[in-house]
Amino acid sequence: MQTNCPNCNAQTSTLHTTCDFCKTMLRPKRVLSKEQEEELEKFAEAIELRFKSIAGNWDAPVMGGCLGGLLIITATWLGLYYAEMTMNFKVILGSTISITLFALWGGLVTWSEKKACQAAYDSQIKGDIEHFLEMRSFYRYEFDMVANGKLEENAFLRAFLFLKH
Ligand SMILES: [Zn+2]
Hints:
Elements: E1 2-4, E2 11-13, H1 34-56, H2 59-82, H3 87-136, H4 140-150
Antiparallel strand pairs: 1-2
Helix pairs in contact: 1-3, 1-4, 2-3
Zinc ion binds at residues 5, 7-8, 10, 19, 21-22, 24.
């Protein structure tokens, strides 16, 4: 739908959370009924499930990478065991290498999941959300508000709420 921005009065799309021109939030004046709110909640949860399954596609490579990482850490400790250094230095070096590897791996997984979710949002999920909102005459702002109230704190969909267009 098109609407007029309450701030600058320009024509702008209700599929955007903010006015295309002045970035004012496009809050509709109406209040959602209980049924409408539930409909949006269900839809937001369905979208979040899609993100979860997309992020879950990383489980196999993640497991493989974990095993590889453990092997490297084991090899490091074995190598250090036979190296000619003082015991304290071996422990410090071994721990530092292990912790760094774990941190790097954790970062890589988070990064991969985020990237996969972003790609899915751009190529499909954004369009599906907009199609649903158009069909049911909801504002994107209403969807974002309901999803924000309903979703878990670490939900993937949160990265795509209240985007400024
Ligand atoms: Zn405006």
